[in-house]
Each structure stands twice: as structure tokens, then as C-alpha cells.
Amino acid sequence: MTDSRPLRLLVIEDSPRDRDIYRRALHDFGLDFAESGEVGLNRLSREPFDAVVVDYQLPGIDGGQVLDQIQGRTELDLPVLVITGGGSEALAADLLRRGADDYVTKDELTSPRLLIALRGALERHRLDQARRFAEAELRIRNEELEATLDSLREAQAHLVQGEKLASLGELVAGVAHEINNPLSYVINNMAVLERDVREVAQIMAAYRTHLAGLVPRSIRDDEERVDLPYTLGNLDRLLQSSRQGLDRVREIVSGLCDFVKQDEGDRKPIDPNEAIKVVADMVRYYARQKGVDLVVEPGNVPVLWCYAGKLNQVLLNIIMNAIQAVEPGGTVALTTHSDPDRSEVRFVVADTGTGIPDAIRDKVFDPFFTTKPPGVGTGLGLWISYNTVQEHRGRLDLETAVGQGAVFTITLPARWPSDPL
Fold first, then answer.
1. Is 253 helix (H, G, I), strand (E, B) or coil?
2. In this predicted model, which residue has the larger pLDDT, 351 or 3?
3. The whole model's pTM is what?
4. Mean per-residue pLDDT for 389-396?
5. What's the pLDDT band for 1 if we cut at 50, 70, 90?
6. What integer pLDDT is reported at residue 295 of this predicted model?
7. Do 388 and 165 form a contact (C-beta atoms < 8 A)?
8. How far apart are CA 246 and CA 249, in angstroms?
């Protein structure tokens, strides 16, 4: 249903003669008059109008000041037509710049120019309102799309990370299985070899003791060539170091399996120092290749209840970033601390790299933000780390300055009230 009422105009005019002109020229409109700018502004604050016609030459505040006050009050969304004196183009241009929709000179009040200018101002205002409404709708839709896009990005990031972890888990589990099989029989053979070699060494020593004078010269020459006393005396050390090497291989394989374990349904207690040791073992070869000194300094910390695999992934992301940020000869230090009063565990990763500029410091935890070349980084590592730490009810803090490296601190509650005692 259309509104058939005549448009209501407020005419701010102090001249009775000019008011009569407005009545005749604008008889199709509902006219209200105000004899001064102060009275007109007061009525505008109390009553609804569709447009304002204001004489520039008014007692008290002039038409330009009335225009400025209307423009400065957002609730007065009205077209304003200013009536000026003749020959004042500069003033008219200034009024248009200040927000007037149009102007008419006093000489034109009795001409069709007044009605044409008023209708044009009303139409432009209507179109401007429609444009602003459309822009507001567009902003709302754009914000909704941005929110949807952010949600999709988060979902995509979680899917990508989940897929990466699942693939890594399958790969490492397969490799660990392949290594464990030969490792098991090598370790078993090593135990048998240690026993047999020691017994053979004892028999050879007995032979040399009892038959020293009867040993042929060619055999004595062979003994001297291999330095048999030293070789026999060194067997225990060689066997022991070989055993230690095999145990180290088994330890590394076990650590890899623990790292990618996917039984993340429940939180479980872990040794924080063992966690940084396992992750450090995973990246030590990469650090050594780059010439970076990887320092692990475990502290006196309590047992930590957490999602072990997720925490390992957080530590790996941050430590790898630190190694990549350090030039050859630099250092990445991994330490653990505890705050008994707050029942918290802190993992600190400090590097001697170039630091993070202030311009991007607040963006490092944003999804898909990366300073690495295309194809090198996804921009998800720190974002996922930040969200994982929050999932653990903890904090991930960054301290950095250009030229002074960066320090990432992961602070986690040692246990939640719901954890078993």
C-alpha cells in the first residue's frame, strides 16, 4: 500500500512575503514554516519532515549554520535546499560542498526552478537512501560470507592437519614395523654373539697361555698383524657400544611410534621432559644439517595430563619453525619449567634468529599466514598449535624483537579437576 500523503516540508524563512511565494509555488506539498534557524532546528528535533528549505540570510544563525547542524546530526537524514542571494556562485558552491542538495536564488523563487530543484533534491535523496541501504545489505552479506569463509578455512585446516597426521601415522607405523622386525633378531643375535665371542676369546687366551712356545711362526705373524692382545681386550667395548647403538635405534623407533599415536580419545599422563626429548630426536638430524645447535635442558616438572599426540605436534611445529628461523651457527633451546603454586608446566622454545617484525607479529597465529615461499609452508602450523594449546586450557605466548630472536612459551595446567588422582 503506497503512502498518498503530501510530502511535508519545513521552510525556514523570516520574510512573510517570501512565505506567500512558497505557498503558491509549492502548493502540492505540506508546508510548515519557521521564522528562524533556532526555531527550525528545534522543530526538526521534535517532528518528522521529508525535506528542508532554508533561507541563507536569517536572523541569528544563518542558513549555512543550519545546514551544518543538520549534516552533523545523523538522525536528520533530510535533503536540504538552500535559498541564496543573486550573484553568489562561490557561496552556492561552498554550500554544496558542505552537504546542501541544491540551491535556488531569491530571484528564482517565482520561477519553475524552485519546484524543479526541490523535486530533484528529493529524488537524489531517495536514490542515495536506496544506495546506502543496498550498501548496508551488501556489507551484511559480505560479513556473513567472510564468517562462512573463515569457518570453511578452519574446517579445511583441521581436515588438512588431520589428514597429514593420519598419513604420517600410517607411514611411521609401517616404517617402525619394518625396522622392528630386523632390529629384534639383530638384538637377539647380538646377545648370542656377545656370549659366544667372550667364550671364544677365553679359549684363545687359554691356548696362548699353554701353547705359547708351540705356536707356529706363521700364526704368531698373524697375531702380530692384527694385534691380537689389543683386539681381544677391545672386544667387550665394541660389543657394549654395539648393544648401546641397537638400544638407541629401538628407543628412536619407540619414540616415533609414541609421537604419531592416534589414541587421542582421552587425555593421559606424560613426562614433559620425555616429550621434548622425543621431538628433539625427530628434528636433530635436520638441525645438524642446517648447522643449528639444538639444546635440550629439562627442568624439574610434574607429570602432565594432556592429549600426547597433539602436544607432540605443537612442539614439533614450533621447534621446526625455530630451526628454520635460525642461521647456521645459531641455537634453538628447549626447556621445561613448572610453577608449583599454579600447578602449571611450561615448554619454552627460544631461538637466536632474526626475530619477528612488529608489522606481522599479530598475524603469526592467523590461519594460512606464512612468510615462507609458496610450496614451503601452509601457514597452518602456528594456528593449529595455538588452537591445540587453547584446547588444553593453556596459553601460547610469543616474545620477540627484530634482531633478538623469538621465544615461544607453552603454558599448560598440569591437570584438570576431572583428571584421575
1. helix
2. 351
3. 0.49
4. 92
5. very low
6. 95
7. no
8. 5
185's grid cell: 633378531
Contact at 8 Å (CB) between 290 and 254?
no
Cell of 107: 530571484
DSSP code, position 307: -
* Cβ-based neighbour number of residue 308 at 10 Å: 21
φ, ψ for residue 299 (rounded to 5)?
Answer: -105, -175
The three three-digit cell numbers of residue 289, written as one number: 644439517
The three cell numbers of residue 108 are 528564482
| Residue 33 and residue 20 in contact, taking contact as beta carbons nearer than 8 Å | no
Look at the alpha carbons of 215, 221, 222, 226 in this order and tell me if their dihedral is positive or negative. Answer: positive
Give the pLDDT confidence of 113-135 residue by residue, as tens digits.
999 999 999 998 899 888 988 98
78 C-beta neighbours (distance < 10 Å), count: 20
For residue 200, count other CB atoms closer than 10 A to its CB. 12
The rounded distance, in Å, linking the Cα atoms of 174 and 176 is 5
Taking alpha carbons only, the member of 239, 305, 293, 231 closest to residue 268 is 305
Q: Where are the alpha helices (DSSP H) in 86-227?
A: 89-97, 113-210, 217-226
